[in-house]
Design brief:
CATH topology of the largest domain: L-amino peptidase D-ALA esterase/amidase
Strand content: 25-35%
Largest sheet: 9 strands, mixed
Catalytic activity: N(2)-acetyl-L-ornithine + L-glutamate = N-acetyl-L-glutamate + L-ornithine; L-glutamate + acetyl-CoA = N-acetyl-L-glutamate + CoA + H(+)
Pathway: Amino-acid biosynthesis; L-arginine biosynthesis; L-ornithine and N-acetyl-L-glutamate from L-glutamate and N(2)-acetyl-L-ornithine (cyclic): step 1/1; Amino-acid biosynthesis; L-arginine biosynthesis; N(2)-acetyl-L-ornithine from L-glutamate: step 1/4
Main location: cytoplasm
Number of domains: 2
Distance between the termini: 44 Å
CATH superfamily of the largest domain: L-amino peptidase D-ALA esterase/amidase
EC number: 2.3.1.35, 2.3.1.1
Order of helices and strands: EEEHEHEHHEEEHEHEHHHEEEHEEH
Structural class: alpha+beta
Number of helices: 11
Number of strands: 15
Enzyme class: transferase
Helix content: 25-40%
CATH architecture of the largest domain: 4-Layer Sandwich
CATH class of the largest domain: Alpha Beta
């Protein structure tokens, strides 16, 4: 597997475009379209929040009930969440308009929205945006990059990645883009993710691969403890690579899953590192666990702790906060056997051994914690299972961004 330049347009047969429709923002693009030259099999995973935005409900119908999907329409600025029956009417109208201009079936159009909850969409602007998007579709890397920028809200950078790998002697490509910065919490987050691949794979295994990988990627990200109404990850496969159909869990399926995990994990790190107001990506690894579930529980507890997050912001090796967060997680372990390390581009340091402070330099620890990417590694010495969670530090800017978000 090889990382390459690009995002959703990297795979054969996929195009993208962006437009400034003036939905909420002025002077910037706020709509994106992804289109496949041929119908795709589609998979999706969605928010666990009981309050689900209309696009989530629409996309669940398309993914679970339609044989194929061929286009995605996404707007930023307004979430189309908590908009009543009118919200579903917006989704249907968006899909109908896209179907008309693209010459595809309405039930082959996926829709996504992100932004302020409770505001009504302006359908005249959505439809005008689609009229701009369709003729601008392009398969270039730049078109994909501009689409990634168009779906941003409080994000500070576009997020995309692409890889190539081999299946059955054929070169297969997978690319993705996502948005997410705030209202990010495990079990899907306030994020939209769109992944495209030219692999030839059955719809059933595509869905299984995505659903399984979500557990170790998007469900392991937390910025602020809030699970959104709009979380959606869509995976489209159009079979244009020409590889033998993947319809059994063989070595080809394993290679596909490895590539999918690489794409998803990269996007997750980008989301966590761009958390609202964040100055650092904070990664938590639990190793030596007895079970995977135990490792997941512990890593999530640490990465979501406000006290730990503020310590990371202050470049403070306050290891007691980490052990405390592990202790109230609900997972059972012996605190007197825990070893704890901090690691970054500046080096690695052990700050706790067998549950008590190690002999370490505070100055060296501060240097390590001052990097833009910081990892805490806790070894609980109970087995060979492990898990990784991603988050960020908690800064003053998080409050500034969210205190006036609607304005």
């Amino acid at each position: 597997m090889e990382y390459i330049e690009g995002g959703v347009t990297a795979a054969k047969g996929f195009k993208a475009s962006s437009a400034a429709a003036g939905i909420k923002y002025q002077g910037r693009t706020d709509m994106a379209m992804i289109y496949s030259d041929v119908p795709c099999v589609a998979a999706g995973t969605f928010t666990t929040n009981i309050v689900k935005a209309a696009p989530v409900k629409w996309d669940r119908q398309v993914v679970y009930e339609s044989e194929h999907a061929q286009a995605v329409i996404c707007n930023s600025g307004i979430a189309n969440a908590c908009t009543g029956v009118q919200g579903m009417a917006y989704c249907e109208a968006t899909a109908a308009k896209a179907a008309e201009v693209l010459g595809v079936q309405k039930d082959a159009v996926l829709v996504a929205s992100t932004g302020v909850i409770g505001m009504q969409l302006k359908m005249d602007r959505i439809e005008a945006g689609i009229d701009m998007l369709a003729p601008a579709l392009d398969g270039s890397i730049e078109a994909g990059h501009l689409a990634a920028k168009a779906i941003m809200t409080t994000d500070t950078v576009p997020k995309e990645v692409a890889v190539t790998f081999e299946i059955g002697g054929k070169k297969v490509t997978m690319g993705g883009m996502c948005k997410g910065s705030g209202m990010i919490h495990p079990n899907m987050c306030t994020m939209l993710g769109f992944i495209t691949t030219d692999a030839n794979i059955s719809k059933a295994l595509l869905q299984e691969a995505l659903s399984e990988d979500i557990k170790d990627t998007y469900n392991m990200v937390s910025v602020d403890g809030d699970t959104s109404t709009n979380d959606t990850v869509l995976l489209l496969a159009n079979s244009q690579a020409g590889n033998p159909l993947i319809d059994t869990k063989n070595e080809d399926y394993k290679a596909f899953c490895e590539a999918l995990h690489a794409v998803n994990a990269c996007l997750c790190r980008k989301i966590a590192g761009d958390g609202e107001g964040a100055s650092a990506l904070f990664e938590v690894k639990i190793i030596g666990a007895e079970t995977k579930e135990q490792a997941v529980t512990l890593s999530k507890s640490v990465v979501t702790s406000s006290l730990v997050k503020t310590a990371i912001c202050g470049h403070d090796a306050n290891w007691g906060r980490i052990l405390c967060a592990m202790g109230y997680s609900g997972a059972q372990f012996d605190p007197e056997k825990v070893d704890l390390f901090f690691e970054s581009a500046s080096g690695k340091i052990q700050i706790m051994k067998d549950g008590v402070a190690a002999d370490y330099s505070e100055e060296e620890a501060t240097k390590i914690l001052s990097e833009p990417e910081v990892t805490a590694i806790a070894d609980i010495k109970m087995g060979d299972q492990e898990a990784t969670a991603w988050g960020c530090d908690l800064t003053y800017d998080y409050i500034k961004i969210n205190a006036d978000y609607r304005s």
